# Entry
Amino acid sequence: MKISIITPSFNSARTIQHTIDSVALQNYPNIEYIVIDGGSTDGTLEILHANDHLISYWVSEPDKGIYDAMNKGIKQATGDIIAIINSDDFYVHAEVINRVVQQFKRTKVDSIYGDLQYVAPDNTDRVIRHWASGKYQRENFLYGWMPPHPTFFVKRKVYESFGLFDTRLKTSADYELMLRFLYKNNISSHYLDELLVRMRAGGASNQSWYNRLKANLEDRRAWELNNLQPYFFTALLKPARKINQYFARYKVEMELWQSKRLENV
# Structure
């Protein structure tokens, strides 16, 4: 199975090398890596040129935002499976893609997702939130659930059947797409109970209370665009789920501390 990995970028010189390296380190042999840049002016293009041998296709041109860039990448992709990892995210080890592909082969599902950690931008070893996704149950969307988008691997035929990202949404198009795929069209999915991706904290929808309110309103609109009826509390539970992710971080840190302690005994 061929897998296409897409990275949208814009003025990402500070972080994109880490993303590229994490893709290049994957030990799965059949990877197509695509970078769609929005016309960066900060040195990102120099980094892309320097890594030309690691990238299957890249382009730098003005776009209409991150979801437009993702759509361009999907249209360019030729893989059986499509993954999207942003320019400030990275895969946690070299086996990620191999394990995902093996799960596709074993389960025969349309999509696979796993766990994600938010880390400090200046110290990626410091975990801020631990997003343990949990086993897939379609009805969980009604209770504010969604999988972490950078860990969401989908067969290309699903995009061909049910469409790309809706660029009318500025911060919640990933949520809308997963709602459309998983909840509305009921594609099959499987939870890979592993940490797959780390993401630097500080995304657009979390930078201020105003942006969080805007994102919450867009989440409501995602249901409306699909002619779906959530519960009255669905949109409220979605941000509330983040609270558990902060507590989960301490559990992860304790487990790591205990394992290191045992190593030193």
The chain has eight helices and nine strands.
